[in-house]
Amino acid sequence: MSIRRFLPRATSELPTADGPARARARIPAASRPLRCAAALAALLGLTACSTRDETPMHQGAALAHPTAVTPADYEFPLAWAGDYTFRWSAAGDIDLGAPEAAVVRAFAESTQVALSVGARLAYPGYAEVIPNGKWLRIPDGGAYPPGAAEGDWKLRWAGTFLGRILRIQPDASGFTAMYCLDDVDVAESYDAGATYTWRQDQPGKPPRGLPVWLTVRSTAAPADPEAPAADTAGATGVDARTTEFGHRRAPNYDVFEGWTITDVTATAPRDAEAAALAAACTAWALDNPHINPAYLAETPSRVPADQLPEAAPPLPGWGIRIAE
């Protein structure tokens, strides 16, 4: 199960309680607004290195469920979400370290974490800034079974998610953004990591990227929509000069401070500009080298991931907050 399963569609396929077999579940229309592998390291121009520097993974049944902590004490919930990372790139002159780009990255990564542990236990600040809607406000324990007051704490992933920010457009009250996710080289588990299968969105069809549009407002922005664009660099959000990139999979500070997310959309493009961005997302995903055998024409059904894909080092990763 990935975020694709929760995006606005008439129906969405979900795993059954016994595992990855699929059952149909209706999504309300009101929800519509959303190794260190040598090849991957070479693609992104980075030196391969291990990311396994955090708490070892354990079977979830042997651990107490995670609880909310202060931002400074937050750690990526490896034992509950699985051994995976995100690696980001950006189009044009978009700076991955800028406050706006950090919000986009943190939103995408938090949304994935929430599918395993719930929105409240995702990155610091996430639950406070996301818009209302059942598909984002996932309860503690994750997104399965759907509609339950608490998830079953059994969803896990392994491998590397690729993300690309294709647009950040500042405006008077904040900014809009569009990013693309490539989750092809990720394996998923519905039994707390006992078994994994390769991700497969459409059997027999080539992989495709997932485009997502965000509308983000500055909590310090002027109310007048005709007012000049806000100087959001340093005035709101987390100033990139007060942080540093690092090996951490998750931030230990509130990246969302100074912002609120008012809209998340992953429906079909509404205009020519959005259609062009969606096409760029698809082209980028198709150009990425993949190792997932489930997308080969000769293997149209779900494929067990007997050897798990490794989590490549996070890019750019999250550093320790530098005291101002």
TrEMBL record:
It comes from the Bacteria. This is Uncharacterized protein. The lineage of its organism: Bacteria, Bacillati, Actinomycetota, Actinomycetes, Mycobacteriales.
